[in-house]
Amino acid sequence: MPDERIPGKLIGAIVAVGSLAFIGILTETVMTVLFPQLMREFNVDTATVQWITTIYLLVVAATMPLSSYLNRRFKHRTLFLAAVALAVLGSLIMIVGHTFPVILIARVIQGMGSGVATPLMINIILEQSPRSKVGRLMGVGSLVITVAPAIGPTVGGAVSSILPWRAIFVIVIPIILLVSLPVGLKCVEQHRPTEEARLNSLQFVSIVLALCGLVMFLNQAGVAVSAAVSGGSATVSAVSAVVSLIVGLGALLFFGWSSKRSFSPLIRLGWLRDPMVLLHLIAYMLLPIVGIGFGYVITNVAQLSLGTSAFLSGALVLPGALIGAFFAPVGGMLYDRFGPVRPILGAFFAAICGPILLLVFSMRLTPVTLAGFYFIFGFGYSLGFSNIMTNALRNIAPQFMPDGNAVFNTCLQFGGAAGTALFSTILSVAQAGAGEEGGATFRHATAVGGSWTFATMIGIVAIAICCLIAAFRIGAKRNSRL
After folding, report:
1. Rounded CA gap, 211 and 418, in Å?
2. pLDDT at position 1
3. What is the CA radius of gyration of the chain?
4. Which one of 10-24, 123-137, 269-283 scores highest in mean pLDDT?
5. What b/e readout covers 283-311, taking b as 16+ CB neighbours within 10 angstroms?
6. Which among 142, 74, 463, 197 has a CA at the least distance from the CA of 332?
7. Is residue 453 within 8 Å of residue 419, measured between CB atoms?
8. Which of 17-21, 332-336, 339-343, 346-350 has the highest mean pLDDT?
9. Residue 130: how many CB atoms within 10 A of its CB?
10. pLDDT mean across residues, the chain
């Protein structure tokens, strides 16, 4: 049918906006393989250097709640150009910055760019795709979310082995200006009218405080535990953790309360009253803790426990990344053909086998087994992840899709930030008091921390699977009443 064909300009728009989001996520995960090198260059410890990743994900998560407002208020092309400008500016600062705070500022700017680009890509797909092709196009969009974090360490390791790490950002700028920008200017179109939406600044501040507070809680709790284990003073970090938790939860509750009573809320949340959609959202937030956190864990366990080079540690995630590149669209096609239950649950029952095997062999891992078991996880994760949001958004009213997109993408990025903070904390606790990096004791301690991390991953994926099973049972009961 002619109306079910995918327009060429839609493909071009997805490529243009998706490549921006891809580059943003790629440069975020590129940095994880460089942590040992950056720790030496800037003279910071593991808990501090991880902020290069965490602050990026945090800013992305804080920017994404604006996407519903931005989508209603501004044209797609305007948002695309803003994302291009932020991506280029952030990369330029990364190239010239030579102190740790300046690097963090650059990551903030880059995070703002990705926070605009990623939901813009999803909104374009949801608004302009033929309905029978939504699943596969969301699968293509999922390549940005699932593959970029996986190949980032490989790219980082490869580039840093032959060039200074800043060369990564020198390479990125021409790609943005010579590929993403011209394709976007030609293909990004506006299919729906803009609205005179108003920005509720108080709600925006409250959601930013909530996200920052919760991630700071994870970070400071980890610092406190690490200090206590190593025999240092944990008082300041413990107090900071408690205060951050109170601020985060308080701001989140205020945001929910204010949104219910606001005439023009930043994000409309009424659709979350549906328990089936809410359970999808919980799973969608939990799974990136593992999916994005894996890049950090594998590269650091490989270098600090197995003694591999930065290049090899990055290459270990490449097989899982390549399988993800192939199976994310395949997962969407399976969703379009068979519905949500079998493609999603089957994918994550396969995915959980990866961390189970990593835990079983955690104290006798080799680079080959580390890559192989991650490959299993990457296969299942990429096959099913994008279908969770696709299925949830199909069960809410079309006018609330931008709000659902904003919430789902915010939770995804928060999950990624929480995962990096959580897993770096677990490794730091295990490494506390284990001597200098490179020593036999330190390597053993890192392997122990890896086993703790893999056990945590199993628990997180299991909870997500339980949420999805409950959601599908609710959907089945509804369908039986029709």
Report:
1. 10
2. 41
3. 21
4. 269-283
5. bbbbbbbbbbbbbbbbbbbbbbbbebebb
6. 142
7. no
8. 346-350
9. 15
10. 84
Q: What is the Cα–Cα distance from 325 to 306, expressed in whole angstroms? A: 27
Please state, in angstroms and rounded to a whole number, the distance separating the CA atoms of residues 62 and 417.
Answer: 11
List the end-to-end C-alpha distance of the chain, in Å, as a whole number.
29
Task: Evaluate whether 375 touches 174 at the Cβ level (below 8 Å).
Answer: no
> CA 291 to CA 145: how far, in whole Å?
10
What are φ and ψ of residue 365, in 5° steps?
Answer: -70, 150
What is the arithmetic mean of pLDDT over 443-469?
Answer: 93
Instruction: Evaluate whether 287 touches 464 at the Cβ level (below 8 Å).
Output: yes
Place of tokens 């991650």: 374
Q: Is 34 helix (H, G, I), strand (E, B) or coil?
A: helix
Sequential DSSP letters for 325-341: HHHHHHHHHHHHHH-SH
pLDDT above 60 for 3: no
- As a whole number of angstroms, the distance between CA 4 and CA 421 comes to 43
Quick check: 333 and 139 in contact, CB under 8 A?
yes
Q: How many CB atoms lie within 10 A of CB 282?
A: 17
Of 179, 247, 189, 190, the closest CA to residue 217 belongs to 247
Helices (H) and strands (E) in the chain, counts: 20, 0
Lowest mean pLDDT among 26-35, 144-153, 321-330, 337-346: 144-153
Coil, helix or strand at residue 346: helix
Burial class (CB in 10 A: 0-12, 13-18, 19+), 116: buried
> Residue 425: which of 247, 227, 284, 212 has the closest Cα?
227
370 neighbors 298 (Cβ within 8 angstroms):
yes
d(CA 90, CA 51): 16
Strand, coil or helix: what is 69?
Answer: helix
Reported pTM: 0.76
Number of Cβ atoms within 10 Å of the Cβ of 250: 14
Yes or no: say if 206 and 412 are a contact pair by the CB < 8 Å rule. no
How many Cα atoms occupy the beta-carbon half-sphere of 315 within 13 Å?
11
- 388 to 124, 243, 332, 381, 466: CA distances (angstroms): 18, 34, 10, 11, 13
